[in-house]
Amino acid sequence: MTDRGGSQTKVVNAASADAKTPRTERGRRTLRKLLDASAVEFGEKGFHEASVSSITRRAGVALGSFYTYFDSKDALFRALVADMSENVKSSARSALAPDMTALEIERAALAAFLDFAREHKEIYRIIDEAEFVDPESYRTHYETIAERIRMRLEAGSASGEFRAGLGELEAWAVMGMNVFVGLRYAVWADKGEARPSDEIASAVNALLAKGIARRK
Amino acid sequence: MTDRGGSQTKVVNAASADAKTPRTERGRRTLRKLLDASAVEFGEKGFHEASVSSITRRAGVALGSFYTYFDSKDALFRALVADMSENVKSSARSALAPDMTALEIERAALAAFLDFAREHKEIYRIIDEAEFVDPESYRTHYETIAERIRMRLEAGSASGEFRAGLGELEAWAVMGMNVFVGLRYAVWADKGEARPSDEIASAVNALLAKGIARRK
């Protein structure tokens, strides 16, 4: 398989555990359509009510093509969770610039996540439903994100920008902040109160940088 | 109805929206048994597989008694979510002492929550399933907790212990930290790595107090 970068690579990475790998560009597009249609279907109906025939209809793909790539609705769901994890990661990564400080990286990653969650509100419902449909995917999703944050925090400690001793516990705390701020301000934002992602990310970043205690 | 305080009050508060109010002490005990048994049943099997007959069997209560208090499995589930919200609140409250600083209150509330979550690991699964079974209960659960944290943060700002300007956004961030640290260290703690709740709460409290930036 030739790695041609960009979106093709993303599809292949994301779905590799549960989808058969397409060998052609057309196949990659079909797989992408199925994943996108399944996000809408699972997000609207939930896993149990969702159906393969409705997903292929949404995707404009023949039912037979579905089984070229997935063995079952379960396999598609697992591939979708992995795909969403991958998309969260790549959306954060694409917001980063080489000259950012460690703190700016946290702010930019959160702002990108908030934008992503506004565009794909179904991500919360799908990831949360994974706790019941496929607990291992659920746990892997969060463990993978926490591990990435831990590495960033430790790099910041090592460079002297962050205080020493940051690790896994702080990474889970940071992830929790980001997830719940996203739930409140990206997914549950009432109409007319849409605060820009940058503004929210900056407020969370200030909390992360200096905490809440008044400096004496 | 005479408010006789203590656990009776808790049952009545917690279940008032969806359970009929028991008029006798024996009735309150029956209602408590049904809520406790349902927590185990919903935690183990999930909402859809759980059954009223299995819950009454676990509770050692006659099936007819169930319908004295609840109209349906749905009503019991909603009452259980409200009961868990109430128990989270009262476990945090019982850990507080009058002479605590605002920061100590956050630490003690988190330590109490971690102890509670270790004892009642099913709480995560039940609250998370509410997102699908009864979205309004799910949202109310988190909005209520965030509102309590917001009031504590604003009190800390007002007294000058915390910096000015803390509000709803910081409250959701703090709630997210606590929820995800609880998920990792209370619910998903691997055997042999059980860190004491106090130690975890202190590390989160340090993050909350001073953030992660190195002080210059």
UniProtKB/TrEMBL annotation, chains A, B:
Keywords carried by this UniProt record: DNA-binding
Domain HTH tetR-type: 28-88
Portion annotated as DNA-binding: 51-70
Annotated PANTHER family: ACREF/ENVCD OPERON REPRESSOR-RELATED, ACREF_ENVCD OPERON REPRESSOR-RELATED
Organism the protein comes from: Erythrobacter rubeus
InterPro entries, per database record: DNA-bd_HTH_TetR-type_CS, Homeodomain-like_sf, HTH-type_Tx_Regulator, HTH_TetR, Tet_transcr_reg_TetR-rel_C_sf
Biased composition, class Polar residues, residue ranges: 1-11
Iron-sulfur as UniProt keyword: no
Gene3D superfamilies: Homeodomain-like, Tetracycline Repressor, domain 2
Superkingdom of origin organism: Bacteria
Annotated stretches, region: Disordered: 1-26
Protein name: TetR/AcrR family transcriptional regulator
